[in-house]
Amino acid sequence: MSQARIKRPDVSVRDKKLDVYNTQLKKIDGEIAVLRKQIDQNQISDVTQNERKKLQEQTREIIKTQADLKSRRNAIHERVKQLDANIKRKTGEINEKLGRKAKYSTTAEVKQRINEIEEAISSGDLTLVDEKRLVKEMQALNKLNKDLVAVEPVKKSIENDKQQIASLKEELSQLNPREVSDKFEQTQEKLNSLQSKTQGVYDKRQTLFNKRTALYKKRDEIYAQIKKIRADFDGEFKAYKQKLEKDRLKREEDQKLSKLLEEKDAKLGKLQEKLAHAKLPAFSSEIGTIENALFVLDPTYEKPQRKLFDDDKDSKPAQPVKKVDDADLVPINKKDDISNTEPSKSKKLKKKQQGQQANGGSVNTNHDFTLEPTLIAALAELEVTVPISQDQVSTTVDQLKEKLESYTSKQDEQTEKNIEQVEKQISQLETDYSEKEKQVKEALEAKRAKEQEEQKENAQ
What ranges does the record list as Basic and acidic residues composition bias (predicted)? Predict the structure, then answer.
């Protein structure tokens, strides 16, 4: 399909529809302008505004005063309540000291009674029983007199508390909020009266606001229609461009075969690179980790010297190795992992050990045995026992040697499996792309045959 046969959307048709709505918009904007002018004309006078503002400020001040009065009254009530509680507590202490059934409440009364008893005893007219009873009463009175003297300060304190309560109640009577309440009501009446006078202006402005809101809504509806017309035209124009794009894509179908071949070469190159990696000995990483651990834990262990690549007569020439991005790699500092000598007790060594523990350094499992965190992580990943003392090192070494023997015995077999797997993928890739190439060639041949027939028909 050529561009000449694709019909372009007519802009003039869209513009005629938009002109109708633009005319309506212009009319509505004029009406809104008139309403805005009327709203500006119907304003409350500055004098009225200032008066209302002044009354509102007075109302706020009155409310603040009422809050202060309430706070002060509450404070006084709370103080009176505390003093009442103190009086009750002190009265209870006196009753507990003197007894609730004490006949005499002052020292003067007690002394008077004691004098009476002494006179009665000294008269000699009493019987022995009466004299003993009076002597016993006099002893009780002497004890009561001592108790009365002891509680005298408490009684004075109670009298002082009662005077404070009387003073606070007098102060409370002077904090009468009635005057403030009356002033508040007067201010509210003035505000209500002012509101009544200006209500007509508010009502008229509200009517104008409602009319303006209705015009805004109508204008939004017209804007929605305009937006829809533009969106419909944009959709048609987008469809037109898509048809042009489709036509262009069809002209580019002949490039599919070359792109398919490029895709095949790219994938084949990746598989060849994967094959080169597969030919490397299997379990190299695990074996290397185990050998490094044995080298650290077993002083008698020696790393075997091995070639990275085995000699192979049928092997392909070496290809450049893909550069590895080492931005995320962390360098490893090789250190002796085990210390068998007792460390010095100097302050410098102790400070160093504390710094290592605080900063996530070496893990010191006891006073003379230390493992690097990297070695601990390697042993944990290999799923072998992590020794926490020198006595457990031999167990870990035996487990490492057992795993090393297991990986070494299966290395050649696993390497062959890896190579076979990649070679199967390469073979399958060759088969798949051979079929795709065949399909593309057939499709291109059919397209060319159809185009030739169309050309013959157009020529006739």
Answer: 306-326, 433-460
Dist CA 388 CA 394 (whole Å) = 12
3-class state of residue 369 by DSSP: strand
Q: 365 with 371: CB under 8 angstroms?
A: yes
Report the C-alpha gap between 450 and 443 in whole angstroms: 11
Amino acid in position 256: K
Nearest CA among 428, 420, 410, 435 for reference residue 274: 420
Per-residue confidence at 218, pLDDT binned at 50, 70, 90? very high
Q: Rounded distance, CA 171 to CA 76, Å? A: 8
Q: Look up residue 182 and give its two tokens.
A: 């009356």
> What pLDDT, in 10s, does the model give residues 312-321?
434 444 343 3
**DSSP category for residue 255:** G
**435, amino acid identity:** E
Contact 422, 274 (CB under 8 A): yes
pLDDT digits (tens, 9 = 90+) for 254-274: 677 778 788 888 888 888 888
CA 106 – CA 108 distance, rounded (Å):
5
Q: Which pLDDT score is estimated for 23?
A: 93
Give the span between the Cα atoms of 429 and 21, in whole angstroms: 62
Nearest to 271 by CA among 415, 416, 430: 430
CA–CA separation, 44 vs 411, rounded Å? 97
DSSP secondary structure, 402-455, as one string: HHHHHHHHHHHHHHHHHHHHHHHHHHHHHHHHHHHHHHHHHHHHHHHHHHHHHH
Give the pLDDT band of residue 73 (cuts 50, 70, 90): confident
Cα angle vertex 115, ends 113, 117, to 5°? 70
As a residue count, the chain comes to: 460
For the whole model, what pTM was predicted? Answer: 0.32
Contacts of 202 (CB under 8 A, 6+ apart): none
Element (H, E) at 365: strand 363-366
